[in-house]
Amino acid sequence: MSKINDIAVIGAGLMGHGIAQIFAANGYQVSLFDLEEPILSKALEGIRSNLTLMAGKGIGHTDDIEQILSRIRTTVDLQDAVAGVQFVVEAVIEDLGVKQQLFQKIDGLCPPESILATNTSVISITEIAQNAQNRERILGTHFWNPPYLVPLVEVVRGQDTADKTMDTTYELLKSVGKHPVRVKKDVPGFVGNRLQHALWREAISIVEKGIADPAMVDECVKFGFGLRLPVLGPLENADMVGLDLTLAIHDYILKHLEDSPESSELLRQKVEKSELGFKTGKGFQEWPEKRADDLRKNLLNYLLEVTKTSS
Questions:
Q1: What is the pLDDT of residues 224-247, one digit of tens each?
Q2: From 50, 114, 142, 205, active-site residue
Q3: Active-site residue 142, yes or no?
Q4: Pick the catalytic residue: 31, 121, 124, 205?
Q5: Beta carbons within 10 angstroms of residue 241's beta carbon
């Protein structure tokens, strides 16, 4: 595998422009592709805004912003975007058919030594790669939103992914300050989203069954076990309290937890009534514009402080 100098990011939306920012901020030349120029212009504005905000918090320097942006070249020509690059990250919509067609196309356009990565959060890497010829160079790199602040990236092996593809990608991500983890099997949701949505399923079930209201469920997480999570993962916690106690608790409680393979009927009803959360002002809770904006700002400020402390 040749040395990686040039990166292409396919899709300049919420995740794509943040991923482009990561590599450009770490000295890589980045080609950023999308279908329309206005999307690309908005992406560059977003990157500038992110870098300015970070510099204001002591993460990076204002003087470096223009230099970082100069490393990002935008294009609406897919062939131009991937020409000569050694690493491609796809960040388009979560649609299997769209991703399959895209990977079939870029597999034919990219140099044979290039690595092709998908930022899918749940879709099978093996299925995404199935129409490509060189499937050994395709893998998953699941960044978390916002990608320039959240360190985790799940590096996911597809059925045909080569060891060298995994190793090179892992080292590349470490070199740009990410915290890559290797997912050994290509399963829906990988690791992070399986854990996250298991919690969400139980949280929604608790509300649906009248055990607690939505605000109380969130309080139990934020003011209880959630406080420990940045330093104590669930399996570390199990080891800390003792696996004998963990087994005793599971023998009693697991049969009482939500285990439905179907989506919650309460969730389905809310979607049917257009109670979609922030975007409509009501979901499980009421979200007037100021309250929604305040929560977004609080989350961003928290992530900025964590990034500043760890950098």
A1: 999 999 999 999 999 999 999 999
A2: 142
A3: yes
A4: 121
A5: 10
35-74 tens-digit pLDDT: 999 999 999 999 999 999 999 999 999 999 999 999 999 9
Strands 115-118 and 87-90: parallel
- Tell me the CATH number for domain 191-262: 1.10.1040.10
What is the third-level CATH fold of 6-183? Rossmann fold (3.40.50)
Q: What does the block give as tokens for 124?
A: 């099978």
**pLDDT tens for each residue of 208-223:** 999 999 999 999 999 9
Q: What confidence category does residue 1 fall into, taking pLDDT thresholds of 50, 70 and 90? A: very low
The active-site residue, picked from 90, 124, 154, 205, is 154
pTM over 0.85: yes
| Spatial separation of the C-alpha atoms in residues 229 and 236, rounded to whole Å | 10
Q: Is 193 a catalytic site residue?
A: yes
* Tokens 């690309």, located at residue: 40
Q: In angstroms, rounded to a whole number, what is the distance separating the alpha carbons of residues 242 and 230?
A: 20
